[in-house]
Amino acid sequence: MLSSITTQRNGHGNQLLDALPRAQRERILSNAQRLRLGVRTVLFEPGQTISNVYFPLDVVISLVTPLQDGAIVEVATVGNEGVVGVPLVPGGSLAVRAIAQVAGHSLRMSASDFLAATNEHDIFEELVRRYVQAFVGQVAQAAACNRLHSNEERLSRWLLMSHDRVGVDEFAITHEFLGQMLGSRRATVTLSAGILQAAGLIRYQRGEITILDRAGLEAVACECYGVIKAELDQVITRTREAPLDDRTPAHV
Amino acid sequence: MLSSITTQRNGHGNQLLDALPRAQRERILSNAQRLRLGVRTVLFEPGQTISNVYFPLDVVISLVTPLQDGAIVEVATVGNEGVVGVPLVPGGSLAVRAIAQVAGHSLRMSASDFLAATNEHDIFEELVRRYVQAFVGQVAQAAACNRLHSNEERLSRWLLMSHDRVGVDEFAITHEFLGQMLGSRRATVTLSAGILQAAGLIRYQRGEITILDRAGLEAVACECYGVIKAELDQVITRTREAPLDDRTPAHV
DNA sequence: CCTGGTCAGTACGCTACCGTACAGTGTCCT
DNA sequence: AGGACACTGTACGGTAGCGTACTGACCAGG
Predict the structure, then answer these.
(1) One domain for residues A111 and A234
(2) CATH number, domain at A203?
(3) CB < 7 Å to strand D — which of 178-237 in chain A?
(4) CB proximity A127 to B under 8 Å
């Protein structure tokens, strides 16, 4: 499960890390481990002190809010565009559960190493802060989306977001699990998924889903997909474009 | 609308500020203005660069996500327990609209003064960071709540949260506006509110609502009220209990 | 005093879901 | 091959809340 990491190649790692100058990236990652996260692995629970921070590579992590009756609802998705478990204060916690949605690989570092790295590398800190800001936006959009958009719209959005993050057209996910993410019944997911399949946008069988027509899915999905994507994309581009003056500029 | 502030008395100001030692608080507030925010005043729009930060005193600010079709949904409420518009990076923005829900007073300072204050005063920075962490939790809880809880539950939660923040039993709010916050029709709000009124928990007429029975409302409201309240309360208590000795990570 | 505007009450058909439940089908294990 | 299991398809009654719309009450201003 564990393997040592030496060098991350640009383009096949985590976008936040890849946005850093190579030397800084390797320095920051000197204490990180690469590991595989199986489906349904729980990284942390609500209120639990954060001990590790994860940079997804091709794994997809869902942040979900568990309710008293056992129901859970996804409030955000994190993949290689972000980082899971940013502790804003040492010893801090988050109010959500982090769970691997689609199995894959991730880099892990301790919360204290992470905080030390943000203190030491200003660009890294800025990236992380911008990501946190975008992350809040994602959760806010999800809050509105969960209230007002239909099952089919949200399912399409979810599929697109996961597709962006896993990097392949086929991945494992069951209707049951999708229902938990969307806060809907399994049968409702089956219905919506059936419509998407009949329209030729996806294909699935026994827990394996294939994305056939992204453009079609985007047409069905609610605006929230584009809003969230644009917001997350800006994390990297804005940091590159407008580095803080009193810090080391990114492109020197 | 503007009046100079000299000294904030403990207990009648903003809880984040009141948690600071008096000298620090006065220093931080030296460039702040006290101002009244009328109902429906918009503090900022999604994506707009944050130029000012607001510390509510008795005003209640709603953070809402506007959707393409014009609908809006509340994703968080901020009162004297928090702060509106924390810029995590200079020149940053938030993905939500901030709008005064119940009229009242607030302290305002520029984003740059705010950032300077967090850099200068470690306790202040820790308070703000803890608040941001709790704020994210609030939005996450709202995302789940919006999906799964009934109109009546959410209305009760909303009334309790506002009641906590305005500090009086009677305040102005219309069904129409409530509907926007809850992401429901005005008529649905009228129905739920009628039930609460019939049960003797509230009274209202022409936009003035009176809280009659808090305990009763808490029984009707979903768990989310308590979860969010506990999370926000911890911002102050945890900071008091475990202030940072310096900026180095806790367990090194 | 009348008028126009804001606000709440109510109604009626409609739809997108829910809860539950059972049957079918593919897959893996023995 | 047979059985156990996991996953999907489908059904059926129930309901919360929608869209629309009309009514009446209260209020401020001319």
Answers:
(1) yes
(2) 1.10.10.10
(3) 186-187, 190-191, 193-194, 197, 204-207
(4) no
DSSP one-letter code for B29: G
DSSP 8-state code for residue A250: T
pLDDT digit string (tens) for chain A, length 252 residues: 444 454 444 445 999 999 999 999 999 999 999 999 999 999 999 999 999 999 999 999 999 999 999 999 999 999 999 999 999 999 899 999 999 999 999 999 999 999 999 999 999 999 999 999 999 999 999 999 999 999 999 999 999 999 999 999 999 999 999 999 999 999 999 999 999 999 999 999 999 999 999 999 999 999 999 999 999 999 999 887 654 444 444 443
DSSP structure class, residue B93 = B
How far, in Å, CA of A238 to CA of A220, rounded? 29
Nearest to B140 among A89, A96, A141 (CB): A96
Per-residue pLDDT reduced to its tens digit, B167-223: 999 999 999 999 999 999 999 999 999 999 999 999 999 999 999 999 999 999 999
Same domain, residue pair A79 and A124: yes
- Distance in angstroms: CA B100, C1' C2: 35
Contacts of A143 in chain B (CB under 8 A): 65, 73, 75, 139, 142-143, 146
Residues of B with Cβ-Cβ distance to A231 under 8 angstroms: 95
Q: Which domain holds residue A216?
A: 150-221
Residue A97, min C-alpha distance to chain B (Å): 11
Q: Give tens-digit pLDDT for B112-163.
A: 999 999 999 999 999 999 999 999 999 999 999 999 999 999 999 999 999 9
Instruction: Yes or no: say if A69 and A153 are a contact pair by the CB < 8 Å rule.
Output: no
Phi and psi dihedrals of A148, rounded to 5? -115, -15
Predicted local distance difference test score (pLDDT) of residue A12: 54
Same domain, A63 and A26: yes
Task: Look at chain B and report how many structural domains it folds into.
Answer: 2
> Would A76 be classed as within a structural domain?
yes
How far is residue B100's CA from residue A19's CA, in Å, rounded to a whole number? 38
Asked if A137's CB is within 8 angstroms of B91's CB, the reply is: no
Q: Which residue of A has its CA nearest to B226?
A: A68
Q: Are residues A72 and A155 in the same domain?
A: no
Q: Say yes or no for a CB contact (<8 Å) between A148 and B89.
A: no
> How far is A167 from A102, CA to CA, in rounded Å?
11
Residue B49 touches partner A, C-beta closer than 8 Å? no
CA–C1' span, A198 to D12, in Å?
A: 24
Displacement of CA A20 from its chain's centroid (Å): 19
Q: Touching check for B223 and chain A: CB below 8 Å?
A: yes
Q: Which amino acid is at A236?
A: I
- Residues A60 and A165 reside in one and the same domain: no
Q: Decide: A106 and A6 in contact? Cβ < 8 Å.
A: no
A142 with A78, same domain? yes
The answer to whether residues B59 and B133 belong to one domain is: yes
Which pair of structure tokens corresponds to residue B20?
A: 């600071």
Residues 132-151 of A with CB under 8 A from B: 132-144, 146-148
